């Protein structure tokens, strides 16, 4: 088969909702490389072309990193501003968010750094009320109205312009990287609408994050930029190498974790990840992180999202509560997956799925109404996680730092008074208030995350899962802290508390809990630990993170093997062969091949003896994606395999451009022309589109071996040698999943 022969446009391409042939695509790339290498020895121009071809991959990675980093920086800045817009506006300039507005004020104190005369709440602007119940009611009303407006705009834009812009995007990215084609999913309209609606959805206050959708955004950038490079535009396997690198870029800009992004792509989403893709992923993630750092969207001159500085070392016995957090994370992950899939199945199979706009509006209304009265649900999830990770300092005014000394004096900050010579921090009224509010916030976060993920707006899962774990971890951390302080004289806690130092760091428990819950939902391990220490800068706490991540995965796997992304892949019916899934059935290839006993014989083409009319009638009467070619109907020995799309395009091209082709013209797949009558119409020669080496197995091949062959070689179909029977990779129609809005 002459794979370099592209004289007919469309030959070698694939239809929508079909699987690519990895073997064919790799063979095309090898032949292309061989041709370039041969020509480079003949002239200087060809040598320069060979060098530019080798350099084009690195140039593409550079462009993907720059574009994705710039978009992520813009999304972060816009989301922060619009989130604060729900509470008020800056008089110095409406484009300033709350933090930036108060930075320029000379009347801001450190204890009340979020209050300044330049920032006005909506109640102060609209009715001139600065205190009392009127202030609360007006701000409550405006908060709900802004949330509804942002969510409504997001779902309307998705519905009208880009149905593929909804959801996380990671299940579909995994499916696309495995070889499936979904036209438009990584297109320019999807990129534009996803970028805009992601800002709107995050700003609405829904229990979702922007980290998962940023992977989708980065892959859209990669797909669009691939069209400017011929070797990636015309080869689906090469394009998927670029998309694997783009997945790493997405996590890099989402968390400021370039190394974790590369490991995430390798561990979680990639289907084919050669060594050169690893280096290019690392380079692209580096460029994206540098671009994001240059934009400085967080305003702290750091790349990491939740920078922590813990000064108290952890103790060996603390591994017990860390493991308990891992167990909680595994239980939460298993519960969330089952509950969310049940809710999504209900949405898909009932009339609820016909009203996506109403669903988004109702969920947003309930979320806003219940979130505003509680301090820890009113703030954004990222801000909540940052506060939970924070270790109380001398000037912290948060309720989480509402401690009191043994002498009974109360302070909103950490008191310097030592109990029995120890830097003890006994819980005060402020901390007790924060604890019950956090417990209530934990329940609300869990419920709303289950309902929100999967709605027709961009919705990520990383930050909500981390928020659930951080709340649970902080609650456990405070309990352990108070237990150690009140019983510091006991043997088990002896040595934990030292003069002038804290006994336990509750923020560390929040960090470990966040990792445990995220691991329970996504089943990440290595990449999760790396992302967490890149995210927080807490390099010395790798062991607690590893213990929690592994425990979380073990517990979650015991209750269900699928991650949330694999569960959604199965729910949507994508043709995805999970490498981690074991094939337990003791069957043979003959048990699943088509046709079975009693079925009509499989439709085949003969290498000669068929006419254009007969082939066109066969194409019209069947829906197969390809046809085996045999010697003859009497001698059905396999010659090769031809794809339906290539056959249709070739016949249309022959009728349009080849003189004398009529319905009675013979179709030839042979290498040599058979003898023909001089009056016969000219033959249509199609040997160039024939795959002469299709993969074949015997009838006695074990089915588990066949499944491994499909996984590792990326086959579209497999034929039984000699007699014609087929095993084909499942093809599904998923248009209704997105267009039934």
UniProtKB/TrEMBL annotation:
Q: Which Gene3D superfamilies does the record associate with it?
A: 3.10.580.20, Clc chloride channel
**A Gene Ontology term for the protein's cellular component:** synaptic vesicle
One family name in Pfam for this protein: CBS
Report the GO molecular function annotations.
voltage-gated chloride channel activity
Question: What SUPFAM superfamilies does the annotation carry?
Answer: CBS-domain pair, Clc chloride channel
Name the InterPro entries for this protein.
Answer: CBS_dom (IPR000644), CBS_dom_sf (IPR046342), Cl-channel_core (IPR014743), ClC (IPR001807)
Q: Which residues cross the membrane?
A: 44-66, 140-165, 186-208, 214-230, 242-266, 316-337, 357-376, 434-455, 461-480
Protein topology in the membrane: Multi-pass membrane protein
Location of the CBS domain: 593-659
Q: Which coarse location class applies to the principal site listed for this UniProt protein?
A: membrane
Q: Does the keyword Ion transport apply?
A: yes
Which compartments does it reside in? Answer: Endosome membrane; Membrane
Q: Which UniProt keywords apply?
A: CBS domain, Chloride, Endosome, Ion transport, Membrane, Transmembrane, Transmembrane helix, Transport
Family stated for the protein in its record: Belongs to the chloride channel (TC 2.A.49) family.
Name of the protein in question: Chloride channel protein
Q: Which organism is it from?
A: Cyprinus carpio (Common carp)
């Amino acid at each position: 088969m002459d794979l370099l022969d592209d004289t007919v446009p469309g030959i070698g391409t694939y239809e929508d909702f079909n699987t690519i042939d990895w073997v064919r695509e790799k063979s095309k790339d090898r032949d292309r490389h061989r041709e370039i290498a041969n020509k480079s020895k003949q002239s200087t121009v060809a040598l320069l072309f060979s060098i530019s071809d080798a350099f084009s991959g690195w140039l593409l990675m550079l462009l993907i990193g720059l574009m994705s980093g710039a978009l992520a920086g813009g999304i972060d800045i816009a989301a922060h501003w619009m989130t604060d817009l729900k509470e008020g506006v800056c008089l110095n300039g409406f484009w300033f968010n709350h933090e930036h507005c108060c930075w320029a004020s000379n009347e801001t104190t450190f204890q009340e750094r979020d209050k300044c005369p330049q920032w006005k709440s909506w109640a102060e602007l609209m009715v001139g009320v600065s205190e009392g119940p009127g202030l609360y009611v007006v701000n409550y009303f405006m908060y709900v109205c802004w949330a509804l407006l942002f969510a409504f705009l997001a779902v309307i834009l998705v519905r009208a312009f880009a149905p593929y812009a909804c959801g996380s995007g990671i299940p579909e990215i995994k499916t696309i990287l495995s070889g499936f084609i979904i036209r438009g999913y990584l297109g320019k309209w999807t990129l534009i609408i996803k970028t805009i609606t992601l800002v709107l959805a995050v700003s609405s206050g829904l229990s979702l994050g922007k980290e998962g959708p940023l992977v989708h955004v980065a892959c859209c950038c990669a797909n669009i930029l691939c069209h400017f490079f011929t070797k990636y535009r015309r080869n689906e396997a090469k394009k998927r190498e670029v998309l694997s690198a783009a997945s790493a870029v997405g996590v890099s800009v989402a968390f400021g974790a370039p190394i974790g992004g590369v490991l995430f792509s390798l561990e979680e989403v990639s289907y084919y990840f050669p060594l050169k893709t690893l280096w290019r992923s690392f380079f692209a993630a580096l460029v994206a992180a540098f671009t994001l750092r240059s934009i400085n969207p967080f305003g702290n001159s750091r790349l990491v999202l939740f920078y922590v500085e813990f000064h108290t070392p952890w103790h060996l016995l603390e591994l017990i509560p860390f493991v308990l957090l891992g167990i909680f994370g595994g239980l939460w992950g298993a519960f969330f997956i089952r509950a969310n899939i049940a809710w999504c199945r209900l949405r898909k199979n009932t009339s609820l799925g016909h009203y996506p706009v109403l669903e988004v509006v109702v969920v947003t209304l309930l979320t806003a109404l219940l979130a505003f009265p509680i301090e820890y649900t009113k703030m954004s999830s990222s801000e909540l996680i940052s506060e939970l990770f924070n270790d109380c300092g001398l000037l912290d005014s948060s309720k989480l730092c509402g401690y009191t000394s043994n002498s009974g004096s109360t302070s909103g900050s950490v008191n310097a008074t030592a109990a029995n010579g120890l830097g003890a921090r006994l819980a005060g009224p402020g901390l007790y208030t924060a604890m019950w509010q956090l417990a209530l916030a934990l329940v609300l976060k869990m419920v709303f995350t289950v309902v929100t993920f999967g709605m027709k707006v961009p919705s990520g899962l990383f930050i909500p899962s981390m928020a659930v774990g951080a709340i649970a971890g902080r609650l456990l951390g405070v309990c352990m802290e108070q237990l150690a302080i009140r019983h510091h004289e006991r043997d088990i806690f002896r040595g934990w508390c030292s003069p002038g130092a804290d006994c336990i760091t509750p923020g560390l428990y929040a960090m470990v809990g966040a990792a445990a819950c995220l691991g329970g939902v996504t089943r990440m391990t290595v990449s999760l630990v790396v992302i967490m220490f890149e995210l927080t800068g807490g390099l010395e706490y790798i062991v607690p993170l590893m213990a929690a991540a592994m425990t979380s995965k073990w517990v979650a796997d015991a209750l269900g093997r699928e991650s949330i992304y694999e569960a959604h892949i199965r729910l949507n019916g994508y043709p995805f062969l999970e490498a981690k899934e074991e094939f337990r059935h003791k069957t043979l290839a003959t048990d699943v091949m088509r046709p079975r006993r009693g079925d009509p014989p499989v439709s085949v083409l003969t290498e000669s003896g068929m006419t254009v009319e007969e082939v066109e009638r066969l194409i019209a009467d069947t829906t197969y994606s390809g046809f085996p070619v045999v010697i003859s109907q009497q001698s059905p020995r396999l010659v090769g395999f031809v794809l339906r799309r290539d056959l249709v395009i070739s016949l249309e091209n022959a009728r349009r451009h080849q003189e004398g082709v009529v319905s009675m013209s013979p179709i030839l797949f042979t290498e040599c022309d058979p003898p023909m009558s001089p009056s016969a119409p000219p033959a249509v020669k199609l040997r160039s589109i024939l795959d002469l080496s299709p993969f074949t197995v015997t009838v006695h091949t074990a089915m588990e071996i066949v499944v491994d062959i499909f996984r590792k070689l990326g086959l579209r179909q497999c034929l039984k040698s000699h007699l014609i029977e087929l095993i084909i990779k499942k093809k599904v129609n998923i248009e209704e999943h997105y267009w039934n809005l």
